Amino acid sequence: MHPKKADGFVLLEALLAMSLILGACVTSVNAYQSLALRLAQQERTRSQLQDKFDAFEMGEQVRANAALTNQIVKGSTNESSRVPSRNRAVRITSQSTTQNQRRSDR
């Protein structure tokens, strides 16, 4: 008797192929899920950092505007004399000395 040739796949081969395909699908779904979870966590962290940065920027703008307002208010009081407040006493003293010398020369 001659051995009979198989004309198709054996059930064991079909099951093995299906289990390999199923393993590849499960692995890819698991990788996709971990990637999606990591992306969501990064997005949440980025959003929190952006909120903190926005709050810091708003605080800096308020501080800069307050400093500018204070500078304008202080600048308007010194604007009439055109002398900065820290040098006012020195300049007034030096001017009066110069004027006294001119008066004594006359």
Describe the model.
The protein contains two helices and no strands. With 106 residues, the protein is an all-alpha fold.
Structure summarized in a few sentences:
The chain has 106 residues and is an all-alpha fold.
Q: Structural class of the secondary structure composition?
A: mainly alpha
The first-to-last residue Cα distance is 149 Å
Cα-based radius of gyration, to the nearest Å: 42 Å
Give the SSE order as H and E letters: HH
Give a quick account of the main beta sheet: strands, pairing sense, barrel closure.
none
Helix content class: over 70%
Number-wise, the strands total: 0
The number of helical segments is 2
**Average pLDDT level:** 80
List the helices and strands and how they pair.
Elements: H1 11-79, H2 88-105
